[in-house]
Every structure is written in C-alpha cells, then in structure tokens.
Design goal:
With 584 residues, the chain is of the alpha+beta class. It is built from 14 helices and 17 strands. 55% of the residues lie in helices and 19% in strands. The strands form four sheets. A five-stranded antiparallel β-sheet has the order 2-1-5-4-3, with helices on both faces.
C-alpha cells in the first residue's frame, strides 16, 4: 500500500534536472536562430535565382529579336545587291527619266524593308558611278535621321565596306550600328541608332531602374559607359554568360552574347530586392539579438541561481565520499547561504562525533591487539624455559650460555615492542635470534635461509609476524627423519598498481592437512585447547590493522612441504600510519 502511494506521489511530482532543461532550451534557441538565418539566406537565394533566371530568359528573347533583325538586314542587303535587276539597270542607265523611275522603284523596296522591321531600320544604296544615292526612308523621323547622319555614315561605311561586318560609329553624340556590303561600284548599307534599338528592349521584368550596355568582345563600351562608371562596374571582370550579383552595392549584372561582334550587358538596380533583404536582415538580426539576450539571461540565471544550487548539491553528494563540505560559493543567494551554513555546522558536528568514535575504536583495537600479543608471549616464554631446563639436565653449559644470550636479546625486543608497527629489519633480526635459539635446541636438526630485498628493510610491519609463522613451521614440520629446511623470502611486489610487501615462509615438511588449509584460507578459527593460537592471532591482528588490504594464503608445495604467503601494504614513512618509528 505504501509503495503504491509512493509511486503515485512520484508520478504526480516528477523530478526534473533543471540544468539539463536549461541546456536543452539553450540548444533549441541556438538552433532556432540558425534555422531562421538559414531560411532567410535560402529564401534570398531562391528569390534571387528565380528572378535572375527569368530576367535572363527575357533578355535572351530580346537579344534574339535584335539578332533576327540584324540577320534580316544582312539578307535584304545581299538580295538587293545580288538579285535586284532594277538596281543593276540603274547602275548602267544614261537616260535621266528612266534613272528617276528606277530610283523610285529601288526606294520603294528599301522603304518596304524598313517598315517590315520590328526596329527602326534605315536602308540606302550608293552608286559610285554617277554618285547616285537612294534612301529608303519611309517616315519623317527616318528621313530626319537620314538628313542628319546619312551622308557621313555613308562615307564611314564606304571606307570599311570590305570588312563585311557590323560596325559601331559615334556621330554627333549618337552611336550608330552600321552594316555595309559592296558589289562592284554599288554600295548598300543599313544603320540603326543604338539607343533606339536598346529602348526596344524595354521590359517590366527588369524592374524600374535598369540600363543595357553594349560592348565589344574586347570590352570597348559603345553604350552606357557613363552609368557603368557611376556604378563602378568593370566589365573586364564579367565574362560572357556570367551573372554577377553584388547585394552590398545593390545591383545585378547579366552579360549575354549578342551578335558575333558585340555583347549586351544588363545592369539592374535591385532596390526592391535590397528592401526585401534589408527587411530580412533586420528581422534576422532582431531574432538573433533577442536570442543572444535570452542566452545572456540564461547564463546569468545559471551563474546566479542554477550553479550555486548545483554546487550545493555536489557538496552534499561529496559528503558520501570524503565527508567534506564547502560554503564559499553559496552566499549569492541568502536563503541558500543560510541553509549552507547550517549544513556546514551539522557536518562539522558529525565530523567531531565520528572522530571521537574513531578514537575510541582505535583504543579498543589497540587493547585487543595488546591482548593478542600477550597471548603469544607467555606461550613462547614457557617454551624457552622448558628448553633451558632440558639443557641443564643434560649439562650443556655452553649451549645454555648461548641460548641465554639469544633469549635475553629476544626478550628485550619483546619488551620494547609496544608499538603497533616495527621496522622490518628489526623484525628479521628478531626472527634470526629465534632461529638461533631453535638451532641450539635442535642442533643439526634443521637449516634456515632468509632472502630479503635491501629496499624493504625500512618497511614497517606489525611486530612478531615473521617469528610466529617460523615458530609454527618448526613446531609442525620439525622431524628427526631428515633435515628440515625453512625458507623465508621478503620482497616488494606491485599488485593492481600498488606496491605491497610480500612475506613467504616455506618448509619441506608433510604440509597442511586439506581441511586445515581450507579453513585457514577461509580465515576460520582453528584454535582449540590453546593450540594454533599464534597463527590465528597474526591473522586477526593483520585484519584489525590493515582490513581488506592484508591477505594470507596457505598452500602445499608441489614437491613436499607447506607454505604461507602474506601480503600487506608497503609502508615506509611515518605519515602512512601515523607511527613515529626510526629504523636503523
């Protein structure tokens, strides 16, 4: 029932990570700004592309119309010079009346061609023999043009008649497009005013503000040079079939090939497009600035509210790890600062309470370890007294003296070993004395070898560790059937990235019984009736002092004998266990 109510409450009041929500909101805001800018750019590009493509189609259509007119002019000129019989007769006639009639007939044909054209086109024929000039002016405006420029253009055209191509010529502030062909002494030419020709290209698709410049392939400008200078447009940098868009300067340049000799360049001032782009820019910048302000506000909110709460939470979580707490960053919010100070005081009180409990626990452990050590000492004292007693009965005075000397040194070490930790070098020397005592007792009965790395002599270990296991080995492996061998190895090893002290004691006896070895490796108590108390005491002392960092492994060798391998932390300075011990 309670668990169901708890689930209902959890569903009703769901927990949210505010920092994560803040990050997601910031990312969403940035994404919206990027999408807005991207859509604006894409819209501008799309509108510009469709507008450009449409204008190119219209311009190409108009240019094609001009090209068709120019092609028609070429055909008409070729037809008149090559196939008009009346023109041939006019070139050779001598009768004045007949000449006038022939001139009227030729003029009629030229006028017909001028009227049929979509553009204002003028035709004229000049017969060098007789200096006869026939124009095809069909309208008053065409005749006015002929009167103003016809003769001069004819002179210019005759000079370039052999070129057989369209020519540009400036005359009295106007630019004329001229085409001339020659057949013997007959010249026929056609001309159009360039400005009138360009006005025919007028189209609403180009907008309200535009102009068309006509240039040669070598970028010689024949029309629109002043406007190109005003716009600072260099057509040398714009090749045929190229579209150049300068949104910053506000114009679009489209250059298209016209005839085989000239190009048409359309320059459009994009006022409407610029206004649209300005609007998009202002809208985009407004959204961007608003987004930036929101991001700044979110950052301010994070620094002044979220970050202190987050730090407060992290410090609370840290209590489970190192039991430390800091209040330095929480005073930006008064309420949070007060709560932080109260929590800091509570943590301080808990620390003091834990220190008191820890000190009492250490004191209890020391009392227990002292008690365990005292359990070992009487056991060995009785063994030593028993050995001396047996020697005295056998009258071995020298052996008694040697034994008494080693026992005295041995007991001196025992009496001063009140510390929890001793130097490994001293412990080894103490073990050697113990082995000497046993050698006196079992003269010729066993042999011992001790191998120690020089680098571990200053290490610290609990007292009477080695001596206890050596004593246990002699007790259980000693036999008079063969020489007993005892091997002691002490060295430093690296396990899981940490240095540890490894102590090995091996013999060549009968080895452990299977059930005893299994219990020892499981750290089960095997002492009964006062037996095996020394080994169990060492295991308990190591557990009290090092906890899980100390390990003991009991094993039987493959050939013969038993062994024990101990691992404990490699401690070599005073700070490691708060023990002030001076070695050597």
């Amino acid at each position: 029932m309670l668990s169901k109510e708890k689930r209902t409450m959890e569903e009703k009041f769901r927990k949210y990570d505010f920092v994560r929500l803040l990050k997601w909101f910031s990312l969403l805001l940035i994404l919206m700004v990027i999408i807005n800018v991207g859509l604006s750019m894409y819209a501008s590009y799309t509108v510009s592309k469709y507008s450009r493509d449409g204008r190119i189609q219209v311009l190409d259509s108009q240019i094609q119309g001009i090209q068709n007119t120019m092609d028609t002019i070429k055909e008409n000129v070729a037809t008149e010079l090559g196939y008009d019989i009346e023109l041939e007769r006019l070139a050779s006639v001598t009768d004045e009346r007949e000449s006038i009639l022939l001139q009227r007939s030729v003029k009629k044909q030229l006028s017909k061609w001028s009227v049929q054209s979509d553009h204002l086109v003028n035709y004229a024929v000049y017969l060098q023999k007789g200096e006869i000039m026939v124009n095809g002016c069909a309208t008053d405006s065409a005749y006015d043009n002929w009167r103003k420029a016809g003769g001069k253009l004819l002179k210019f055209a005759i000079e370039d008649a052999e070129k057989g191509r369209w020519l540009m010529h400036d005359l009295d502030g106007e630019t004329y497009l001229i085409y001339v062909r020659r057949n013997n002494d007959m010249y026929m030419f056609s001309w159009m005013q360039l400005n009138q020709l360009l006005r025919s290209v007028d189209n609403n698709a180009f907008g309200e503000d535009y102009y068309i410049a006509v240039t040669s392939k070598e970028n010689v400008v024949y029309s629109g040079s002043e406007k190109l200078k005003e716009d600072r447009i260099d057509l040398a940098g714009v090749s045929d079939d190229e579209v150049s868009v300068s949104l910053l300067k506000g114009y679009t340049v489209i250059r298209r090939p016209g005839t085989e000799d000239y190009d048409f360049t359309l320059v459009i001032h994009e006022q409407n497009v610029m206004n649209l782009l300005k609007f998009q820019f202002v809208a985009g910048m407004s959204i961007t600035i608003l987004g930036l302000f929101l991001l700044i506000f979110l950052y301010f909110l994070y620094r002044t509210l979220v970050h202190p709460i987050q730090t407060f939470t992290e410090n609370i979580d840290r209590l489970n790890e190192d039991e430390s707490y800091s209040v330095a960053t929480h005073y930006q919010i008064n309420e949070l600062g007060k709560a932080s100070e109260m929590l800091a005081n509570l943590v301080s009180r808990i620390k003091k309470l834990k220190i008191n409990i820890y000190e009492k626990t250490l004191e209890q452990q020391k009392i227990k370890m002292d008690f365990l050590t005292l359990q070992i000492e009487p056991h060995f004292y009785l063994n030593c007294l028993n050995i001396i007693y047996n020697m005295a009965q056998m009258g071995k005075d020298k052996e008694i003296q040697e034994l008494s000397k080693n026992v005295s040194a041995y007991l001196r070490y025992i009496f001063k070993s009140n510390e929890n930790m001793v130097c490994l070098g001293e412990e080894l020397e103490h073990t050697r004395r113990y082995l000497k005592i046993q050698e006196i007792r079992y003269k010729g009965g066993f042999r011992s070898d001790i191998h120690v790395e020089e680098s571990v002599l200053d290490a610290k270990i609990p007292p009477l560790i080695l001596q206890t296991f050596v004593e246990n080995t002699i007790k259980h492996a000693m036999t008079f059937d063969y020489e007993t061998k005892i091997l002691v190895i002490v060295r430093r090893v690296k396990i899981h990235g940490k240095y540890k002290l490894e102590l090995i004691v091996e013999d060549n006896g009968e080895g452990f019984q299977a059930d005893i070895m299994e219990k020892l490796n499981r750290k089960e108590d095997i002492s009964h009736d006062g037996k095996q108390i020394g080994v169990m005491n060492v295991i308990k002392r190591l557990g009290l002092f090092f906890g899980n960092e100390a390990e003991a492994e009991f094993y039987n060798k493959e050939d013969q004998g038993a062994g024990v391998r101990l691992y404990m932390p490699f401690i070599w300075n005073e700070e490691e266990k708060d023990e002030l011990i001076t070695c050597r």
